[in-house]
Write a sequence for this structure.
């Protein structure tokens, strides 16, 4: 019965007894408690950091949403402004075209009136010249001169 395994068991029990007498178990338990406290503190810190990260993420997502809404508002405003400017430019160009058309029509009417007046004057001058030739050929003397002057004055008055 006093085999090697027996003596190993006795030595092991004696070793455990000496450790218990010296207080090694308290040292080991204190070390384990410190380790547990350190792990708990690290877990608490990790939990706190996770909550901060989630709060920051939520804040940045909120800011991103606000920025997207602001960008959408800016784009909508720019589109509305562009449409307004396009409508305004179209109205101005139509007004410009209408003004130019009226101006061209006025110039055409003036040119037409001038052409009619020129034709009338030319016709009057031709009629006066023809009447003068006819009267000169048919009427002679002082009477001819009086008739010609009077006729010319009447024709000019009627035609102008």
């Amino acid at each position: 019965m006093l085999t090697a395994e027996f003596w190993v068991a006795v030595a092991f029990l004696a070793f455990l007894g000496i450790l218990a007498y010296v207080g090694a178990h308290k040292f080991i338990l204190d070390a384990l408690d410190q380790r547990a406290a350190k792990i708990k503190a690290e877990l608490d810190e990790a939990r706190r950091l996770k909550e901060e990260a989630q709060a920051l993420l939520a804040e940045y997502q909120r800011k991103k949403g606000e920025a997207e809404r602001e960008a959408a508002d800016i784009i909508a405003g720019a589109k509305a402004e562009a449409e307004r400017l396009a409508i305004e430019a179209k109205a101005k160009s139509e007004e410009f075209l209408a003004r130019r058309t009226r101006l061209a029509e006025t110039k055409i009417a003036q040119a037409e009136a001038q052409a009619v007046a020129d034709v009338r004057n030319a016709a009057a001058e031709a009629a006066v010249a023809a009447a003068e030739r006819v009267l000169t050929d048919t009427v002679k003397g002082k009477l001819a001169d009086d008739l010609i002057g009077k006729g010319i004055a009447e024709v000019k008055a009627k035609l102008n």
